[in-house]
Write a structure and sequence with these properties.
Helix content is about 35%, strand content about 20%. It starts with a helix and ends with a helix. It is globular and about 70 Å long. Strands 1-2-4-5-6-7-8-14 form an eight-stranded parallel beta barrel, surrounded by five helices. α4 crosses α5 and α10 runs parallel beside α11. The protein is α/β, with parallel strands linked by helices. The protein is built from eleven helices and 14 strands. A hairpin with a 4-residue loop joins β11 and β12.
Length: about 375
């Protein structure tokens, strides 16, 4: 009997733990002009309400749209947890102010807990872009730990049955990722959202895909320019378990002032780069902009049609105008999103998040990219 019990215990310990339930998280931006009733609840497991901002003095900025009890009420009606997202790119200075000391961090956490309770949110998503040195690394850790403690305490005070969720956004790049204290952070959060996009832009040397699943051999900066490389960094180099890693997918593309992929970018033309919603890009495709598929990267390009060549009337005639300027767009389409979702599922990561759902609302009232991800990775 003792030998049988020991064998049974050994088998139980050796058995793989059940996989964490997949998450498909949609970011609902207050500035996105998407009515709450048009949120594709059936395509998402969670919604992050962005942003609860922090001004440069460290004060939370509330508006008519933030917090939003009507949004969280709809979430409950659709059995979809709603997290409030703190931060965004312009709030770095404020976050550094409120986390300067343990006392200021604790006071800030209390203000956030009041927002959670008043707005009836189901948790917090921290979007600190991005810790950049030892001081901000420690401040980030202090805030994440404080938020977890505050959420646990609030759940007990309100006799909440389900625990509050805590997630955090991290950079795809080791340049910023090195300043995340993963040993502590991974224990405190339910998952980390890896922003596996914006891998190219005005800051890059060459016109490249901004969210390719795999790197292109034609890309001189290919070492870190892929979703696969970003996820490999957080899993293998930083030791974050796969079940706590969520792959970020953009519902927008990046337009660059070049004619062909991997052309050198002119830094003097940085102001001619732009971000475009998928719905806008798809409209251009319908107007005759030719698309090309990069099978190596599993990602498409969209090119502005070249202008018809016409000889100048005289040497004094101006050459070219805004309509003649070249433009190349890197984006995700339904094919690349399906492949990305399928790859994420096969690799065993926790799920995907999408920035931002208003960018995928099409004229037929469907969300094409969310549909593609769900088709590749349906709920069990």
């Amino acid at each position: 009997m003792i030998r049988y019990a020991s064998l049974l215990l050994a088998l139980m310990l050796a058995a793989p733990s059940p996989a964490a339930e997949r998450v498909l998280v949609g970011y609902y931006a207050t500035f996105g002009k998407l009515p709450v009733e048009q949120i594709p609840w059936d395509r998402l497991t969670h919604v992050c309400h962005a942003f609860l901002r922090v001004d440069k003095e460290g004060e939370l900025v509330t508006t008519d749209a933030m917090p939003n009890p009507a949004l969280t009420a709809d979430g409950r009606a659709n059995d979809t947890p709603i997290l409030v997202t703190i931060g965004g790119g312009v709030t770095v200075q404020g976050l550094e102010v409120v986390t300067a000391t343990s006392e200021s961090t604790a006071a800030f956490v209390e203000r956030v807990m009041q927002i959670i309770e008043d707005g009836r949110y189901d948790g917090v998503d921290l979007d600190w872009e991005f810790p950049r040195n030892a001081a901000t690394r420690d401040a980030h850790k202090r805030l994440v730990t404080g938020l977890r403690t505050g959420l646990t305490r609030l759940a007990k005070q309100t006799e909440r049955e389900a625990p509050y969720l805590l997630t955090a956004t991290v950079s795809p790049s080791p340049f910023f990722g090195q300043w995340i204290e993963t040993d502590t952070i991974a224990e405190q959060v339910d998952w980390l959202n890896v922003m596996a996009y914006d891998l190219s832009g005005p800051w890059s040397q060459h016109a490249a895909h901004h969210a390719p699943l795999f790197a292109s051999s034609k890309d001189a900066e290919r070492a870190t320019r892929s979703v696969a490389a970003a996820m490999r960094y957080w899993e293998q180099e930083r030791g974050v378990p796969k079940e706590k890693l969520v792959v970020g997918a953009p519902l927008f593309g990046r337009a660059m002032p070049v004619r062909e992929p991997f052309e050198a970018l002119d830094p003097d033309l940085a102001d001619r780069h732009r971000a475009m919603a998928f719905s806008q890009i798809r409209k251009l495709a319908g107007e005759g902009w030719p698309a090309k598929w990069d099978n190596e990267s599993r990602a498409p390009w969209l090119q502005k049609p070249a202008p018809d060549a016409e000889p100048a009337a005289s040497p004094l005639t101006p050459v070219g105008d805004d309509d003649d300027r070249p433009e190349l767009i890197s984006f995700d389409d339904r094919n690349s999103m399906h492949m990305k979702a399928n790859w994420t599922r096969e690799q065993g990561y926790r799920g995907m998040f999408f920035w931002a759902i208003h960018q995928d609302r099409m004229s037929d009232e469907r969300h094409w990219l969310l549909d593609a991800a769900n088709k590749a990775w349906p709920a069990d």
